[in-house]
Each structure stands twice: as structure tokens, then as C-alpha cells.
Design a protein that fits this description.
heterodimer; A: alpha+beta; Alpha-D-Glucose-1,6-Bisphosphate, Chain A, domain 4; 3 helices; about 40% helix; elongated; B: 4 helices
Chain lengths: ~200, ~80
């Protein structure tokens, strides 16, 4: 049996802004994702035929499973997820597929997230998670594990949106400041050139 | 930017991440990205990978990643439009 969790949200930012901020979704600006302790890039390529950017990231989480589930699965402190993402700049679509590396012989969690534009200033986020408990044994226990994880996804979805909103806002501010600095730099350079031209 | 799972790789990772983000927003999204192998971040990425590969091996994560890659082949076909 596979349990499915799905959720759709929208963000009032352009697809370009969202797809950029997505790379730092788990940075310290996001106070709602403290369970993510590290994000490492394992590989990154641009497909020459399609221009699609493919990235593999290893996401390390502090174990956030409920106590009883930890007892069944064993007491590991950290768990890892492999996220493979595809950015299609022509279609303006980001697809991210994440699968758990830890306990993958006991349980499979595959999450697919898609970001695509709704308009020039609005981007849709859609998420589907498929959860399958593989452990041979009682169906009832498997069901409980699956249900518990589906509930967890629901709780995290709301926190995820809130956290990403903060990252988007910070991202926009930082980019604006950077543009402002670059503009000031150009103006200063122009002024110097102008003065030099006058005194020459 | 987020940390690396290996603290000893944090510095090279931070440098690469900053470079990548600039490349992504200023070049790639504007159709001027070129390939990932010859862009301005390539050398930093290599340095970061050199550090990270050792850390993954030490922790035995490299094998888990290999297995997950196998499982992800269908997604590559689907999202990269390859056969």
C-alpha cells in the first residue's frame, strides 16, 4: 500500500525569484527549517541538448521522527535525503524529486515538488509525497508508520511555506541592495571618468 | 547559505555556493549560462567536491547515494526527456 500526501500553494514572486531563492531555502534565514542541518551539492550539469540544469543535493536532517517510530527504526541522530532537481529555463519549470537514503530498506518516501509560473508575479508550488513502508511484518504497524508520516508531511507543509516566504523576502531585499551598490559603483566610475575628462 | 555536513568543507562550499547563485540568477536564467564545466564556478566546485568526496566516504554515505541514483534513473528519463 502506498500513502499519498499532496499540497498546492502559491507565492507572490516571479518564477525567476522563486527558483533562485529555492537554492537557499534551507539557509539560516529560514527559521522554520531548523531540522535541516546541512545541504551539499553532489553533482551539477547543464544538459547540452535541452539546457536543463540537473543538480543532486544531499540534505542532512536532524532526526525529527516521533519517539515510538525511532524505537522501531533504530536510534540514529541524523538522516539523509537525496534531492535531484531539474530546472527547465525554456518551460520555466523546476522539478525536484527527493528520496530518503536513511532507512531506505524499511521505508520509501519519494517527494516531488514542482515550481511553475502562474503569472509574471506569481508562482505555483505543488508537492506530492508517496510513502511506502517496506518492512515485512504486521500490516497494522506498516499502516501506522505510513499514517504518521502523512500527518508529519501535513504539519511540515504549513511550516515550509512560512519559512520559504521569509527566504523570498530576504532574497528580494539582498538582490535589491546588490543592484543598488552596483548602480552606485557605476555612477561613481562615471563621475570619475567625467572629472578626468574635464581636467585632461 | 546552509552548512556542509562536513565542517572542514564549509569554507570551499560557501565560496562555491555564492558563485553558483550569482551565475544562476545573472547568467543561467538569462540564457547565458553555457555549460557547468567551463563556467566561472567550475574550479571552486572541483575544490568543494575534492573535500566532500572524502567526507562522504568516511561516513559511508557514498554507497547510499549510489543506490539512490540507480532508483532515480526513471526520473532522469522523464525530466531530461531522454530515452
Amino acid at each position: 500500500m502506498v500513502k499519498v500526501f499532496s499540497n498546492t500553494e502559491s507565492f507572490n514572486y516571479s518564477w525567476e525569484e522563486v527558483s533562485t531563492a529555492n537554492w537557499r531555502k534551507y539557509c539560516p534565514w529560514n527559521e522554520k527549517s531548523t531540522h535541516v542541518i546541512a545541504v551539499d551539492t553532489l553533482s551539477r550539469t547543464v544538459d547540452p541538448a535541452t539546457g536543463i540544469l540537473r543538480t543532486e543535493r544531499l540534505i542532512t536532517c536532524r532526526q525529527a521522527a516521533p519517539e515510538w517510530l525511532k524505537k522501531i527504526l533504530g536510534g540514529m541522530e541524523e538522516s539523509q535525503v537525496l534531492e535531484t532537481s531539474y530546472v527547465d529555463p525554456a518551460k520555466k519549470e523546476v522539478t525536484m524529486v527527493s528520496a530518503n537514503l536513511t532507512f531506505s530498506n524499511l521505508i520509501n518516501v519519494e517527494e516531488t515538488v514542482v515550481y511553475k509560473p502562474l503569472s509574471d508575479h506569481k508562482t505555483q508550488f505543488s508537492q506530492v509525497a508517496k510513502i511506502t513502508a517496506l518492512c515485512g511484518g504486521w500490516q497494522r504497524i506498516k499502516n501506522t508508520i505510513e499514517d504518521s508520516l502523512v500527518t508529519r508531511f501535513g504539519e511540515n507543509a504549513a511550516k515550509g511555506k512560512e519559512g520559504f516566504e521569509t527566504v523570498l523576502a530576504m532574497s528580494r531585499r539582498v538582490f535589491a541592495e546588490e543592484r543598488e551598490r552596483e548602480k552606485r559603483g557605476t555612477l561613481q566610475a562615471q563621475a570619475i571618468n567625467f572629472r578626468q575628462a574635464q581636467t585632461a | 547559505m546552509s552548512a556542509s555536513l562536513a565542517p572542514e568543507c564549509n569554507e570551499v562550499k560557501e565560496r562555491y555556493d555564492t558563485c553558483f547563485l550569482k551565475w544562476y540568477s545573472e547568467k543561467y536564467l538569462r540564457g547565458q549560462g553555457g555549460t557547468n564545466e567551463n563556467n566561472e564556478c567550475a574550479a571552486m566546485f572541483k575544490e568543494y567536491q575534492k573535500c566532500l568526496t572524502v567526507a562522504l566516504k568516511d561516513r559511508g554515505i557514498d554507497k547510499l547515494v549510489e543506490e539512490a541514483r540507480e532508483d532515480n534513473k526513471d526520473n532522469d528519463a522523464l525530466y531530461l526527456g531522454r530515452k
